C-alpha cells in the first residue's frame, strides 16, 4: 500500500556528489600517464611556434584512452603560446567526423567554423567542389598557420577520405587553389587501427607524417585515473576500498578504456542506491561489470547506429552464431531482411548491405575476412563480430529491436558456445530450409 499523501522523492543523494563527472567526457584538470605521448605531440606541433611549417599528425589508439582529451589540451596550449609569441595561428576543430554524413556536409562545417554566425553556408545549394573553393578561400583569408583537427576520422564519409586527408593538407602546394600564404596542418584522430589499412598509400603517407600512438591503459594506470574521477563524483568515504581497483582491473582486461571504468563506477553507485545502501561495495562493482558490456552495446543500438546499421549488426551476430553456416554477406542480408520485416521497417536492397557492413566495420563492431573461392575464382567476405554474441543478443533484447530477436536464439547461442546443456540440434545446411532456421517472433 502506498500512502498517496507521502512524497516518494528523496532530496539528497547519499552516494554521489556529482554523478555527471562519470557520465560525460569533460576536460579534466589533470591528465595521467600520457607524458610520452604529450612530449611527442609537443614536438610535432612546436614547429609552428618556432617558425616552421605545420606538420600533419595522426593520432591513433583504442577508444577511451585520452586521444581527444589530450588533443584539446594541446590545442589550447598551442593557441596560448602562439598568441603570446605573435605567431599567426588559426585552429579549426576538433570537428567530429561522425556527425557528418557526406564530404559536402563536412566541408560546409569547416567553412562555417571560419565564418561568423551571420555568414554561414547553408546545408545545400552548392556543388561539393564549390564548397571546397569556399574552404580554400577561407583558409587563404585566415592566412598564417591553419591547423585543422578532425576527430574520429574513421567515420569520415568514404567519399571524403581523399579530399580531406590528402588534398586538403596539400592544398597550399596545389596550383588550382587560391592558397599561397596559408600553411595547412592536419591533425587526424582515429580509434580504428584498421582504418589506416583501407587508405591509399599516398593518403597514408600524407596523414601519417607524424604518428602518435595512444595505447590502452593498464590496471595501475586506470586505478590512478579512476581515483581522480571518483574523488569528484562520490561523496567522501562511500566507496569500499576494493571498488576502484576492481573497476580498473576489469576495464584493463577489456580494453584499457577510461570511459568504461567510469561507467562501471557509475553503475556500481546506482546499484548501491537502489539497494538503499550508503556504501558502494565490491559486490555492487562486480554486478556493474556484468552489465556494462551489454549497456555499451545497447547504446550502439539506440544511439550510435542508424536503424538499418543496427539491424545489420543484429543480423551479423545471428549469422555468426548460426550453426554450420558461414556469416557471408549473402547470409547476413537474408537475416537482415527477416529482422527488418519483423520490426516493420522497409527492407533495403542487397547492395546496401555492403555499405552497412562497411560502416559497422569502421565502428569496430564487425570484422571481415576475404576468402578466395579457389579455382572457380572470385572472392567473398565472411564476417565476425568483435563483442561477445551473448552481450549483443542481450542488448538487442533490451533495445527497440527486441521483436526482431528470433525466438530460438538461446538454443543456438548455447550450441554456439558448446554448452553441454544444449539439446539443440543443428540443422543440415544441405537442407533447403535454412531460411526457416530462425523463428522470428
Ligand atoms: N590520462 C587521462 N587522465 C585523465 N582523464 C583521462 C585520461 N585519459 C582519458 N581520460 C578521460 O576519459 C574519457 C575518455 O577520454 P577521451 O575522450 O580522450 O578518449 P578517446 O581516446 O578520444 O576515445 P574515442 O576514440 O572513443 O574518442 C574523458 O572523460 C577523458 O577526460
Ligand atoms: Mg575521442
Automatic annotation (TrEMBL):
ATP binds at residues 65-69, 217. Signal peptide: none annotated. The keyword Nucleotide-binding applies. One of its GO terms (molecular function) is ATP binding. Pfam families: AAA_22, Cdc6_lid, WHD_Cdc6. Residues 313-396 form the Cdc6 C-terminal domain. InterPro entries: AAA_22 (IPR049945), Cdc6_C (IPR015163), Cdc6_lid (IPR055237), ORC1/CDC6 (IPR050311), Orc1/Cdc6_arc (IPR014277), P-loop_NTPase (IPR027417), WH-like_DNA-bd_sf (IPR036388), WH_DNA-bd_sf (IPR036390). Keywords: ATP-binding, DNA replication, Nucleotide-binding. GO terms for biological process: DNA replication. HAMAP family: ORC1_type_DNA_replic_protein (MF_01407). Involved in regulation of DNA replication. Belongs to the CDC6/cdc18 family. This is ORC1-type DNA replication protein.
